[in-house]
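@channel sequence for tomorrow's demo:
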Amino acid sequence: MEFAQETSFFCIFAQNKTLYCNKYIMEEKLKWYQMITLELFWVLCLLISIMPRCIRYYILKPLIGALLILTHYRYKVIVGNLTKSFPQKSTKEIKQITRKYYMFLAEVAIDIISLVGASEERKDKAVDWLNAKEINERLDGKDWIAIGAHYGCWEYLPLWSRQQMCNTFMSVYHPLTNKVFDQFFLRLRKLSSNIVTVAMRNTFSYYLKNRNKGIILGLLSDQSPALRADTQWFRFLNQDTAFIDGAESVALKYKLPIYFAYTKRQSPGRYTVVLEEIYDGQETVEKYEITRRYAQRMEEMITECPELWMWSHKRWKHTPEKQERLYGQNTLPK
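structure tokens (generated this afternoon):
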């Protein structure tokens, strides 16, 4: 069983339950010069976040986007991924999507920075949860899984906690190599009083100690998993693709329903999200069927607006051919 390997995991715990969290939180002390860098960067982000919306999204965003375009940020990775995913598109169309993607990255940077000094009103405007009432009525006080992708501003997904203010939001993270940015994101996720952070490697043990306490276990499972002898392959965006299977494993073992966060961008920094059920927690399904449903729904979402997905990530670094070289066989469906 595998879980996402970066800052892509969130879950919510009912406030009136006993929680085990202190020993799961890992914060590395910074050196003095790192602390100064962190504080200066935080102040800079705070100053940007309190600027008028028109300045942030219609002046700063184009400047950042232009910088990414001029520096050809991960250009070969982006174009390579797009070309293999959309073989029917022309070179001109691929370049157009690439240019839009650079602007999207710039927008996400502004989205994240804007969270530093965001008011309660701005946070509420960032995401319109279209079926929040239905989900609350159906799953209030129950454990369930919310699964999303690095699509749109993924840092907005924990804002679901504002739909259940009596809950405690747990942000599970994978430490970044850059310690300053690592501490920046840890601090960013503590801006609300009902958020706690837990190290990625402690996620499963944390859930076992706190299950049946109204947990919403959130995952972004679209990253490349570690390659194993039993890694399974799914046809995704015209390529054989491996997927992280942690969500399916937990759902089947503990009979948890899974909801996919179908996201649409409405305007700069603002999204709508519909939580769609892909597993009810009771249905008898074949192994990997839930992961297949997730991959299929995510592909439909990406195809609808491709520039909003994380194309600069080396998503297809593992292949069935590599699996066969390492383990003597591959697990492609016959």
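heads up for whoever presents: The beta strands are 9-14, 127-129, 144-148, 167-173, 195-199, 216-220, 233-236, 239-242, 258-267, 270-279.
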